[in-house]
Design a protein that fits this description.
It is a single chain. The protein has one domain: Uracil-DNA Glycosylase, subunit E (3-Layer(aba) Sandwich). The chain contains nine helices and seven strands. The strands form two sheets. A five-stranded mixed beta sheet has the order 1-3-2-6-7, sandwiched between helices.
Length: 222
């Protein structure tokens, strides 16, 4: 966590963050309750509710995505929409027990823009990511996963630095104080946006290949 905190403190103009809201001791139960009242950034006005992480406090691996989507916002649980179902399928194919997994997002509220009757995903900006980051830091401190997996560019750059490129460094172990093994790969939602069935099949195969590396790391570190 030291690296993340030093990055935040090095900004010339510190941003408002959720840091003062972090309870002590920071158990997952206490964090989830405190986060449900978070107003550190304006996204709480858009979201139906805070969508906190979910999984065992002793999970071997933590997956971090960008933000909740429409289904997650509606039901208050992470990775239960189309991207979450695809992630579950990829985990099963890679041989990762879903019970070993803790899933969460960098940003805990759904950011969207209207398009007719639909709520269309909108990428969170740097201020929103910075405001929400203390919740993720606290989750990492509480769970202490052996393996951390960043899903997509927003998560990878929030945790591993803005120079990180998932397209170049996916599936490759990264040195970081955040966990004993850290990986990054694409967010499952990117597969859903692929232009053809063939492209989706190929993208899914690559995601499963990355997750098999994660599975191997979990086995080594047990």
């Amino acid at each position: 966590m030291t690296q993340l905190k030093s990055q935040r403190n090095s900004r010339k103009q510190p941003l408002a963050t959720a840091l003062p809201l972090i309870p002590r001791p920071a158990t997952l139960k206490a964090l989830r309750e405190a986060a449900s009242h978070c107003r550190a950034c304006p996204l709480w006005k858009q979201g139906t509710q805070t969508v906190f992480g979910q999984g065992s406090a002793k999970a071997a691996v933590m997956f971090v995505g960008e933000q909740p989507g429409f289904e997650e916002d509606r039901l208050g649980k992470p990775f239960i929409g189309p991207a979450g179902k695809l992630l579950n399928k990829a985990l099963a194919q890679a041989g990762i027990d879903r019970g070993e997994v803790y899933v969460t997002n960098v940003v805990k509220h759904f950011k969207w823009e209207p398009k007719g009757q639909q709520h269309i995903h909108k990428k969170p900006n740097a201020k929103e990511v910075a405001a929400c980051l203390p919740w993720l830091e606290a989750e990492l401190e509480s769970v202490r996963p052996a393996v951390l997996v960043c899903l997509g560019a927003t998560a990878a750059q929030a945790l591993l630095g803005r120079a990180f490129r998932v397209s170049r460094q996916r599936g490759v172990p990264v040195q970081s104080p955040l966990a004993r093994q850290v990986f990054a790969t694409v967010h499952p939602s990117s597969i859903l946006r692929a232009p053809s069935d063939e492209d989706r099949h190929e993208a899914m195969a690559r995601l499963v290949e990355d997750l098999r590396k994660v599975a191997a790391a979990i086995r080594r570190l047990k």
